[in-house]
Amino acid sequence: MKHCKTCTYWIKPDSGYGEIPGVGECKRVVLFWDATEWDDDGIRTLIPEYVGRLAFVQDGSDYHAELRTMPDFGCVQHEPIESLIEE
Fold first, then answer.
1. Which residues contact 53 (CB under 8 A, 6 or more apart)?
2. pLDDT per residue as tens digits for the range 16-70
3. Number of domain units in the chain
4. Which of 1, 2, 16, 51 could be disulfide-bonded to 78 (CB atoms 3.0-4.6 Å)?
């Protein structure tokens, strides 16, 4: 399985206040609210550009959420960083 540390969607951690060393953010997993809409029947559906995504994040307010991972977290939606392909 491929890991976050070699994925184009993984944002490397910064050493800011309150951060845990090594924890980064996955940009492939998006906020559920942003990836969905209400249809005419009042049913929540995926917006076409998000069809095929396998995971979403959601918090109680639908305002902001992130998937935070360690570098060795494995993911089936991994896409290699371009610079690693060229090497």
1. 28, 29, 30, 35, 46, 77
2. 777 788 899 999 999 999 999 999 999 999 999 999 999 999 988 888 999 999 9
3. 1
4. 2
